[in-house]
Specification:
- There is one protein chain.
- The chain is built from eight helices and seven strands.
- It has 282 residues and is an alpha/beta fold.
- Helix 6 (228-232) links the parallel strand 6 (215-220) and strand 7.
- The protein is globular and about 50 Å long.
Amino acid sequence: MVVFCAWISRSETMHSLLEHTQMSVDASDTALWLRRFGAVAEPEQRLVCFPHAGGSASAFSGWRRRLPADVDLLAIRYPGREDRITEPFVEDMDEMAGEISAELAPLLDSGMVLFGHSMGAALAFEVALLLEEKHGRSPTMVVVSGRSGPGTGGRDLPDDDDDSVIDFAKSLGSANSAAYDNEDLRPLLLPALRADLRVIRNHSPRSGRTIKSPLSIYVGDSDPDVTVAEAYAWSHASTGESSIKVFPGGHFYLVDGEAEVLDDLSARLRRARGSKPVLPSG
């Protein structure tokens, strides 16, 4: 069971992370759960990104500069952090998936692609299922990153106490794990991570569920929590085409390998152009 914690881009300092967490970000042109990075007048596609456990929408803010200019970049805004800092955390994945899918359903006409990393991968899959089951259409592609596929078991999650949560986060090998030793940042980071760990712990998905959307699987070759074989187990969760891309790096390969990741993702987005939302059979 994989969790991605403390994703801080290399360009961010501790001070800037503190500002991201405390300051309200303008989201006037988005719905409750969505933040848009850069305005695209007539998007050819929409890329919706689901953050890791303990993470927030701003983790994807730097992606705008490397994606195709006509892709509308959106990220999911989890409650209890950044511009939703005053709201209580949601600790139920089904509840989150239901609310997010309802907001995304009207946007499916533009060729929507979902990208989720770690906990975000599991949530993106649940959203794709609901879009198909309750709204009659599916994304043109779902990208699951840094997460073991269904039925592969997973690592035990830590207890709720601070030391256990911090040790767990550090064990994933983040170059920015020092953030948890910062007395100013620790009270801002730990509550969100602890709440998201509860989301994962409480989630009991039914076995054998599949989506119709094609699945792209991303994983780091030295991820301490996810082997390549465990990641490839996602291929059984789609009746469409599946492919896997292995990147150099660990659970945080997205940070150091951002350019390679976004080049590959951009190529996949281009190949998906013109694909209509997948309709359920019958």
